[in-house]
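Per-residue structure
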Amino acid sequence: MKAEKVTIRIKKKQQEVVGFLEANKIDFKEMDIACDEDNRKWMRENVPGEKKPQNGIPLPPQIFNEEQYCGETGKCSATEENEIQAEDEATPEGEGEAQAEATEAQGQDEEQPATEVQ
C-alpha cells in the first residue's frame, strides 16, 4: 500500500514538471530511468549530497540543466527567456539542456519516466 502511494505521488510530481515545461513552452526530453540503469546511476551520482534524502537515493523528478543540478519539482519558475530557475539555485543563462530525471521508488518494478529539458 505504501509503495502505491509513493508511485502516485511520484507520477503527480512528474506530471507537474511536464505541465510546467509545456506551459512555459520549454523544450524537453523525458528520460526513463526505471529501465535504464545508466540514466538512473547518472541521476543518483549528480544530485548533490546535501540535496539527497537520508537514505541517499533521490526520488523523481530531479531537474538538471545539462550537468548542473537545478532542483526538484515545485521549486522551479521560468524566466522570460524560458529558462528554468530553481528556488534554491538559479539556472545560468545560456545553458543548453536541462534534465528532470525520475527514478523508481525503492522496491518497485514500475517504470517512472523522467524529463530532459533542452
Residues 88-113 have pLDDT under 50 and may be disordered. The longest strand covers residues 68-72. The helical segments are 2-23, 37-46.
